[in-house]
Design brief:
242 residues; Rossmann fold; 10-stranded mixed beta sheet
């Protein structure tokens, strides 16, 4: 195992096996689009868990599954694809340190390309996937599979990763799934369809769409319960202003 000696970020992982490796990244954000999409991919395609990372900047949070603690940020590989999947949000104040720590570790392996998946809130139902790239040449690889954003801005860890790749001359792409501010497997499924075309994955998204229906039903039920609770609460006379 290898470890990054950075003070800001420590990476414990097997090295990438090939200079032809595409590195996909998903961190929590709007709709949890990237995290859901890549965790689904590595589970369904049985990627190998090869590493983890930790940082003094990470929030003190760990997810668990069936009583077992998960590493907050996990690294997987299969064939010529590597995936970095995070359960924890990265605060804007530390995006620079975390993105640079990841790219400092990746750069010696000469990755073929880097791709980040995030969500973009539009509150529209289409579940379109918008695309950005670091160079005009890289943009040609995704322009047939996404709707290219003509103008705008990207924030968060995805923007730091893309900017860092552009500075270092690493071809990089951003997939932005159209979403709402709630866990959105439908948007994640739409981004997976783009990955299927880019990397010939052949990954079936039907189980993910079934999960979307379950989540939507649960959220609808929760919304009804909250509304019923609000209706049952005695109303107090409130002062009026203005």
């Amino acid at each position: 195992m290898t470890a990054d000696a950075s003070n800001d970020l420590k990476i414990f992982s097997k090295p990438l096996s090939s200079e032809d490796t595409a590195v996909l990244m998903g961190f929590p954000g709007s709709g949890l689009v990237g995290t859901i999409a890549l965790q689904y991919m590595v589970d369904q395609m049985e990627f190998d868990l090869v590493g983890t990372m930790t940082s003094r900047y990470f929030p003190p949070l760990a997810m668990m599954n069936k009583g077992i603690i998960n590493d907050p940020v996990r690294m997987y590989t299969k064939n010529n694809i590597a995936a970095i999947v995070a359960d924890i949000p990265i605060h804007p104040m530390i995006c620079y340190e975390i993105s640079n720590g990841i790219l400092d570790w990746l750069e010696p392996f000469k990755p073929k390309e880097v791709l980040t998946i995030a969500g973009i809130v539009t509150n529209e139902p289409e579940k379109r996937v918008f695309g950005v790239a670091t160079t005009p040449e890289a943009l040609k690889r995704i322009e047939e599979h996404t709707q290219v954003l003509p103008v705008g801005s990207i924030s968060g860890i995805a923007s730091s990763i893309l900017t860092g790749c552009k500075i270092r001359g690493i071809p990089a792409y951003g997939l932005l799934g159209e979403t709402v501010n709630a866990p959105d497997p439908r948007s994640s499924a739409a981004t997976i369809e783009v990955l299927n075309k880019m990397y010939n994955l052949g990954l079936d998204v039907k189980p993910l769409l079934e999960q979307a229906e379950e989540i939507e039903q649960s959220m609808h039920k929760l919304s009804e319960e909250v509304q019923q609770s609000a209706d049952a609460t005695p109303k107090k006379d409130l002062p009026m202003y203005g």
